[in-house]
Fold this protein.
Amino acid sequence: MPPPMPDAELKARHRAMWASGDYPSMVETFLLPLGPRLVEACVIGPEAEVLDVAAGTGNASIPAAQRGASVTASDLTPELLEAGRHRAEDEGVDLRWVAADAEQLPFDDESFDVVMSSIGAMFAPHHADVAAELVRVCRPGGTIGLLSWTPDGMIGALFRTMGPFAPPPPPGAQPPPLWGSEDHLHELFGDVVAFDTLQRDRLEVTAFEHPRDYGEHFKARYGPTIAARANASRSGRDAEFDSALDRFCDEWNRGTPADARFEMEYLLAVGTRA
């Protein structure tokens, strides 16, 4: 068994993974509806102090700022924050961008009215650490809002498909889609957050003509897929990886071979911090 990876090295690898490919273009291609969905569910209004954790390119941060909230967008990967700055400028909104680790947020206790994350904080490896930080920086009576892919939905299946080819996870790491499990959220937050919204929904994706175009898009743009395929290639298993991803796309296509349609299930969770 390899020795534990130092935390600084682990974070550097995560930053590099999310900076690889072109995640901003994935957001523009089919992920845009998720940010506004979370902002609406959190009932964010003018003057609210909002923190978006693992904000990426600001898919939730920017809609929150458009509602008049004072928004801080934080993310481990500076390249994603830079893309978000450009998006915000194009949208004519002003918000604060801070490079930050979701497991060690650089903010004071009880600093924000709303702490949210849209398919972001779920990818930090140590779930309990992240949950503790989300609670710590949220004011009592404030809102914690999360939108996460589910374990039994399409992205959960994608991670199971990629798992045998990916580098081994660091010690103590948990699978990202667990955040999309109601039971897991209750285990993480206990009585500290009372969830009044726990709703499963699906993001419909019709951006790809053929089913396997979805997989090609992920291989070119999505950091976790790029990392898994690179690891497979090092052991001569790249063709095996490609075949597994092709089968995955065919299995999850809900359209036709010439007109692909996918349904990506997520869990919307909104609660009040005690």
Q: What stands out?
A: The two ends are 41 Å apart (CA to CA). Residues 238-252 form the longest helix (15 residues). Strands lie at 49-53, 70-75, 96-99, 112-118, 138-149, 193-205, 262-273.
